[in-house]
Write a structure and sequence with these properties.
7-stranded mixed beta sheet; single chain; 11 helices; alpha/beta
Length: about 290
Amino acid sequence: MKERLIMNLLRHIPLSIRRIFAIFIAKLSYHLSLKHRLIAIHNLMRSFPDKPLKEIIRLAKESYISATLVVVEFLDIPYLNKDNLHQWISIEGLENYKEAEQEGKGVLIFSAHFGNWEIGNAALAIMTQPFVFIYRVFDSPLLERVITGVRASYGNVSLSKYNAMWPMIRLLKNGATINLLIDQNVTWYEGVFVDFFGRKACTTPGLALLALYKKAPVLPVFTRRLPNGKYLLEIGKKVEIVSSGNRDADVLINTQNFTKIIEEKIRQYPEQWFWIHQRWKTSICQIKQKG
């Protein structure tokens, strides 16, 4: 395939050079894209009202760099294996994942567009077994082929989030692990509103619905970039699921609990989250207008 040839050629550029280029592109994009720059700064100012503007701008620029590094490092993922993985990433909490697997109900892991989640996904699959990654189909057929192809290179299966509930239920029944990124905005009729950095954010209830229905263990997973350029994959302990019998209330409180875990991680390392995303785009006012 032509795109595979291009990826192979680009990969022959030393990683250190690619990272320098990524930083240059990120800084250029920050200055050229007024719309996205303002989105990032606005989101950061609303989320960290006590931080001075100088710090907000620094975090916005670092966020651009973080996202661009994900792209240039993506080229190396198909070449990761157990022998060279330590050069890229270390893992903490693997015992939490193995304990969850032993319950025999499948495993639900959740994360965010934080650090380099793609390398984290590859590392977890390589050190354990491949899993199913829930994602939104890309608008570009080229990107769709490239990204799903790279994910498949280490065995992971990409499953479109649209109409995915019943397939996910069947997968959990067969003991599969399912990974969901739950930090992005959804439309008002798809989600529930929970607190995220002091504002109501429309969030997918899918993870909570699956956990309540299948009783599968739920674990938070984050891949954090370290100062030396390597990564740390942190697998948290099983999240306690609230199950009172009131379905709507349980979905809301569990989704809030998952989102709170994500917020706490982002507060620790705000420069590693995707601030240019319009996380709070859907508002409660839209529901009132539709009603």
